[in-house]
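Example A, followed by Example B.
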Amino acid sequence: MEHTLSTDIAKKLAEHASHLETLNRVAKAIASGIDLGQILQAVTSAATELSGARFGAFFCKVANEEGERYRLAALSGPAPAEFELLANRTSFESAFHGTVVARSDDIRTDLRFDKPTSLFGTPGGLPLASYLAVPVVSNSGEVHGGLFLGHDEAGMFTAEAEQLVAGIAAHAAIALDNARLLQSAQSELLECKRQELAPQRLAAIVESSDDAILAKELNGIITSWNKGAERIFGYKEEEVIGKPITILFPEDRYNEEPVILARIRSGERVDHYETVRRRKDGSLIDISLTVSPVKDAMGRVIGASKIARDITERKRQEIAAQRLAAIVESSDDAILAKDLNGIITSWNKGAERIFGYKEEEVIGKPVTILIPEDRHNEEPAILARIRSGQRVDHYETVRRRKDGSLIDISLTVSPVKDTKGRVIGASKIARDITERKRAEQQQNLLLREMSHRVKNLFSVASSIVALSARGAATPEELALSMQERLAALGRAHDLTLTKPAGHAPVQTQPTTLHALIQAVLLPFESKEPGDAKRATVTGLDIPLAGSQVTAFALLLHEFATNAAKYGALSAPSGRIGIECSEKNGEITIEWRESGGPSLAQENEEDGFGSLLVRATVKHQLGGEIVREWKPEGLRIRITFPMERIASAPKPELATSG
């Protein structure tokens, strides 16, 4: 679930950023512009860009002697001159009369159109296959006109594009209302100066605005309140007239009003100041505030007019985008984006931690800088799947850090699409699974070692049965002999186990080199009176107290088990001689077998036992091992540092039989 959530976050963030940039550009143009032509051009260009249209147009409703008609008011893209003919065709009548959105995947086969080939796809006709037509309607229901978006390829407009354009159309309707109201107010003001009707007409314009428009004195007392203010703040006019403007302020914003009034008294205007106000029901609302000084006939400032626009939804979208960005940036996983050429376009802190590169070191670089040479073939395969719209889930592979070290990762790659549904890049989430891989390898090694040792124990038990049976005259003697041998085997096995912390040491555990070797070989000795010892230990004998005594005991047990299965201890006449020596701080153990069956040299690479022996000698004892298959039997020589099994050695020569 975490992978899926992080992937969806990365995709939404990439798409949302592009949309938000365009919408902000339109919002600024709408908020700051009063020129109808500029507003219409900004709206048309934004709708064309966000929908992925090849060309777009805005048709305004006009009235003349022939009735209502639509004329071309703004163009975006390489729209042909014949485009204006579209507005008054019956095929688009529903959209331009403000009833429904019209969308067609292929106009050439759409039965709603009358003789489409007469206008589309013919020499000199319009290069139009798919289209989207959205009405622009004010809150009062008046149709301002319509946005028409076209493409010369079929099926290019999605439901998402339709929603985006519908949203732009809704904002455009408000902006057009306000722009027309403002233009009308300006025209009416000139007329009112001639006819002394300006106050009444201006009041009507203010009253019909969707924005909150109010006036206050220089002491902050509200003197006028329009319907827009009632809708936004929830107070009726009679509830606020004569009250201080601070009834709309949250307590933590009271300090704003003195600053605003000071600027107004000095004749300054406050433009598009974004802040927070409180509604009658106590809820908070984000607004964009414009405050202008009101002057008398002598030019003295006597009050202020305020226009407050509700920007709560825009703020909510901005906060959502910021939260998504924060989640991506704080993720422990590496989250990055790339284009369809494999060039890195974004890089989070998690990627910096995992791969070692800072953002400025990788942006604009190919993603192959993270891929080892023997895995370069993976990237074309991944990009091919992404281009086809497929997702790559939990793909386990290896990547290279900045320092050259390799890292195991689980990779999830998802396609990033534009508003037309075309794949334009990919988002990647890479999780470091090095520890998990190491744990899996350790677990597999332990399972193999366990299996190997269990099989060895069965082999040893079989050898003990055979040894005991040779000298037993009765079942009771056989049972007693086997019990003694198995008990000795158990004591030797204890030597191979590390005691848990806090447990008292076993008192019978051998404390010298010879005692350890004898304990491991004791289960294989003959119980018959007068029989010679099968194993002889000579040479150096030292106290055992090093960190690798257990590893050394396991190694001896492996040698003894193999001898019981295949070597000298598998035959009644077989013997083993072990000689211990020390030189220059290194211990040498010579293991010589004789009297056993003839052995062929085994492949050193075969068998888990051989792998275990080599790993123990090299990695745990830090030494070397040499094996020789002589006619008389196997010889093994191992050499390793003394401190691995003895902390403070005092060498002495001894012979144990």
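Example B, a separate protein, is given below in the same form.
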Amino acid sequence: MMPSINSSKLLLLVYFLWYISSKNCNSIIILCRRFMPFLILSGRLCPPGIEGTLFALFMSINNLGNTVGSFMGAGLASLLGISSGSFDNMFMGLAIQVFCTYIPVLFLFLIPKEATGVSAS
């Protein structure tokens, strides 16, 4: 005998499917918007004619960075003893993650002033 699906369960299923789909789309849109200023700046700095190659290179570096970051996050969790049964050092892990997020700010001086549109005076 087949279990019956009443309208409230069907409505809940439709809501969950909509939520999962929109969350995935929104995360992709946010990722693209976050990456766009970097691509525009690199397009201004690169020689004409190699924008596509530079874009492919940056996408490859981005994917490599995501993979290495995932492995480093797993290693950090293992090092701090964070597991599915123990969250004792979770605050320390989050603090390290937030600190490492701001490390690239230290390298902003390497971007030429004329490429950013900011006057050098």
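On Example B: The CA atoms of residues 4 and 91 lie 45 Å apart.
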